[in-house]
Specification:
The protein has helices at residues 2-16, 18-21, 37-51, 69-81, 98-106, 134-149, 165-181, 196-209, 221-233, 249-256, 268-283, 307-310; strands at residues 26-30, 57-61, 86-89, 111-114, 128-131, 152-159, 183-191, 215-218, 241-245, 262-266, 291-293, 296-299. By secondary structure, the chain is of the alpha/beta class. It folds into two domains: 2-132 and 268-294, Response regulator (Rossmann fold, 3-Layer(aba) Sandwich); 134-266, Rossmann fold, CATH 3.40.50. It comes from Tropicimonas isoalkanivorans. Residues 1-22 form the signal peptide. Residues 27-286 form the Periplasmic binding protein domain.
Length: 314
């Protein structure tokens, strides 16, 4: 009964009285890792947003690696314990973060998720989810793969952390689209744990194990960067259809020199900017959408210098 009453009190607070309950002016932005250009671009977006919010400050942190889920859990718990005004969170695991997000809800601290979602059992504990539609983005990459290499042949998938929300949608969407719309054989799926060096080594191994490979898909920034370097090192640039995900300088250069035929780039800046803005709206008592699509742009050698691409590259 006590837990039920706490939950009801928290729900009431979340709906009507955030500003009165906030015990600090800090909005904590907690991402999967601070050691990535993608997440640093999220940071830039968050910093841009907070400049227009004089009543709030912003902190930014993330574990050393995306696979350090326990460290991220501790960061969220610490933010709740210091009674921040709100949290913008990119959860590294769909289940492990739920108790921490629930704790924030019980303390009337609004949580806005970005990039990756959590399991349905936690859906009542956050206020909004801002992300690329990862399933649609994966399908887009698969369609581009088919358009470029044809509807038959062999491909490998270079994924990152199995079971992460974004990975489930992105790689799942890619895989399902390939199977439903072509006779392409997926020879293997590798998991880099979002480590560039691991992806490089895995790609070198894959190119050696499957010398007749026609295509390869790198599903996030460090994975695609490692994949691109391996393709170059193997002297296979331009000899197979290679598609990456995200848009740092390395990946842009791979597109320009033909190592990659394209990259699907998320609005990482927009995730940070809209994430902080959405928390501020909740704190002001405004209603927000439960899901906000931050979009994706497919960048190729032909459009990389056009405004639509330059607005999302970093």
């Amino acid at each position: 009964m006590k837990k039920l009453m706490i939950g009801l009190m928290a729900a009431t607070a979340l709906g009507t009285a955030f500003p009165a309950l906030a015990q600090s002016n800090e909005i904590a932005v907690i991402v999967k890792t601070a050691n990535s250009n993608f997440w640093q671009n999220v940071n830039k977006g968050a910093e841009a947003a907070v400049k227009d919010l004089p009543d709030y400050t912003m902190t930014f942190q993330g574990p050393v690696a995306e696979s350090n889920v326990a460290d991220q859990v501790n960061m969220v718990d610490n933010a709740v314990n210091r009674h921040v005004a709100g949290i913008v969170l990119a959860p590294s695991d769909p289940d492990a973060l739920i108790p921490s997000i629930k704790k924030a809800w019980e303390n009337a601290i609004p949580v806005v998720l970005i990039d990756s979602g959590i399991s349905d059992s936690g859906k009542d504990y956050y206020q909004s989810f801002l992300s690329t539609d990862n399933k649609a983005a994966g399908e887009l990459c698969a369609q581009e793969m088919i358009d470029r290499m044809g509807d038959s042949g062999k491909i490998a998938i270079m994924s990152y952390v199995a079971g992460v929300g974004s990975e489930i949608g992105r790689v799942g969407g890619f895989t399902d689209y390939i199977k439903a719309n072509s006779d392409i054989e997926i020879v293997n799926t590798f998991y880099s744990q979002a480590q560039m060096a691991t992806a490089l080594n895995q790609t070198i191994d894959a190119l050696a194990a499957y010398p007749d490979l026609d295509g390869i898909f790198g599903a996030n920034e460090p994975t695609a960067a490692g994949m691109g370097r391996a393709i170059e090192q193997a002297g296979k640039a331009g000899q197979l259809t290679a598609i990456g995900f995200d848009g740092n300088e390395d990946l842009q250069n791979f597109v320009r020199d033909g190592t990659l035929q394209g990259i699907a780039v998320q609005g990482s800046f927009q995730m940070g900017e809209l994430g902080v803005q959405t928390v501020a709206k909740v704190l002001a008592g405004e209603s927000v959408e439960k899901f906000i699509d931050t979009g994706v742009v497919f960048v190729t050698e032909e459009n990389i210098d056009q405004p639509e691409a330059q607005n999302v590259l970093y």
